[in-house]
Write a structure and sequence with these properties.
Pfam families: Acetyltransf_1. The protein is an alpha+beta fold. It is about 30% helix and about 35% strand. The radius of gyration is 13 Å and the shape is globular.
Length: about 90
């Protein structure tokens, strides 16, 4: 499951999404499910004209950091900032 909250810009159009969580059952991890969910969510956000997604990640959560970096995330202090292009 991925939880996402949109943010609005001055013109009222959603442009930035905040990823609240990425969750995969413990017995289903390391199978590519989280990455597939994340890629699907980012594609859907791009279709809806979001240009940026952010997520806060604990520095010690190396599995999540690796997942996010595998889809193009770049670190901004303790926040990983996702940008993507179609």
């Amino acid at each position: 499951m991925i939880r996402i909250s949109p943010s609005m810009r001055d013109n009222g159009r959603p442009r930035i999404a905040r990823i609240r969580s990425i969750e995969v059952r413990a017995d289903q991890r390391r199978r590519g499910i989280g990455r597939a969910l994340l890629v699907h969510a980012l594609d859907a956000l791009h279709t809806r004209e979001f240009g940026l997604a952010t997520i806060d990640v604990d520095e010690t959560d190396t599995a999540t950091i690796s997942l996010l970096e595998s889809v193009g995330a770049r670190r901004e202090s303790n926040t990983l900032e996702l940008t993507w292009q179609k």
